Amino acid sequence: MRIDGKLAVVTGGSVGIGRAIAERLAAAGAEVVVADVDVDGAGWTADAPGIRFVEVDMTDDAAVVELMACQPQILVNNAGGGAVLRPCFPEASVERWSASLALNLRAPMLTTQLALPGMKAAGGGAIVNVGSTAGLGFGPHVSPEYSAAKAALIRLTATLGVLDGARVNCVVPDWVATERGLRERAALPAAERGADLVPLEQLTDAVLAFVEDDSLAGRVVLLDRGAPTRMLD
Question: 70-232, what's its fold?
Answer without folding.
Answer: Rossmann fold (3.40.50)
